[in-house]
Amino acid sequence: MLRKLSRDLRANRRMPLNMDVSPGDLGYYYIKFEEKRSRLNRLIHSFDDQGVPLNTTYIDVSPPRLHYYPISIGQYALALFHTWLATGDPRKRDHFLRLAGWFARNAREEPDGGVHWLTDISKPEFGVHRPWKSAFVQGRAISVLARAWQLTGDDRYLRLATSALLPFTRDISEGGVSVDRTTGETFYEEYVAAAPTRILDGHAFALFGLLDYARAVPPVVCPDGHRLSLRLFDEGVEGLIRQFPRFDLGFWLRFNRCDLPAYPQDDPCTIGYLRLVRHQLLVLHRATAREELLHFAEKCQHYDSLPNILKMYRLKLRALKKLNRL
User: Fold this and answer.
1) Residue 322 domain flag
2) Which residue, among 133, 232, 142, has the nearest Cα to 190 in the 3D structure?
3) How far apart are CA 296 and CA 292, in angstroms?
4) Which of 64, 71, 289, 294 has a 20 to 30 A CA-CA distance from 21?
């Protein structure tokens, strides 16, 4: 834990952001991911023969094994896209498209025409032991597929991105990836479990995917998809604004708001997550001009102090012990 504290204290207070939210060709993702694994994703262990990343398991998953983690695959794809934008290296373009092809090959069709991707690794803290859906995955897949469509003109990518919108329209009890829509507080689930888990940064990343679709696909090309992506984005932003105060501990943020009975009610986010959420809020403020989002971002910055960090770690240790994640 001391090593983690030291590493977290060194986490970037400033992330390289792309604040361009205008419609048209998608360039850099909103967070400018880099290919270097130490900066990108510590769980990426290696790559298969097509260059698709393989993750290691979480600390509480046994036995450990390598697996395909769609969130990481999408993250690495976007990092490759960024390198291609910066260098024009055709090898990076081709590698990016191989990862877009992974999403195309692994999309699972649903009866209503939607598609989803499953993550085949347990999440014991949420009682999830079967392959699971994720709004975060849906959003990240859309971000990759929309760029692949713009890059190649291949309508297969557009069809998949459009179909990936449909799981957002359904509650987790109906096989979808959303919760709280009936109360007007729509929240998109990073981990679909037996009850809502409400991971704050996962909801924001799902919104980034919906925003990418709305920006990339004009109404003249796909009017239904464009309208749906905007509606889902607006619903999710309103849900974030209405639910955010319940993540506020008064000195820090909760990592999530989980309804599972065995989950600790006060599980604070880490330092890196607090800073990530702040940057996500800044991007969403640029996209929506909702002043509440800027206020929340400023609150995150105010909370980021050593006394609050030490107070947070006392709570975090208790939560991790309860979850058997130490």
Assistant:
1) no
2) 133
3) 6
4) 71
Print pLDDT tens along the chain (326 aa): 556 666 666 666 778 999 999 999 999 999 999 998 656 788 899 999 999 999 998 777 878 889 999 999 999 999 999 999 999 999 999 999 999 999 999 999 999 999 999 999 999 999 999 999 999 999 999 999 999 999 999 999 999 999 999 999 999 999 999 999 999 999 999 999 999 999 999 999 999 999 999 999 999 999 999 999 999 999 999 999 999 999 999 999 999 999 999 899 999 999 999 999 999 999 999 999 999 999 999 999 999 999 999 999 999 999 888 887 76
* Cα distance between residue 292 and residue 245, in whole Å: 11
Q: At what angle do helices 200-216 and 271-288 cross, to 10 degrees?
A: 30
Q: Which two tokens stand for residue 297?
A: 């971002």
Amino acid sitting at position 226:
H
Q: Is 18 part of any domain?
A: no
Number of domains in the chain: 1
Contact 315, 255 (CB under 8 A): no
Residue 222 in tokens:
């796909």
Predicted TM-score (pTM) of this structure? 0.95
Domain presence at residue 181 = yes
Host domain of residue 32: 24-255
Does residue 9 lie within any of the structural domains?
no
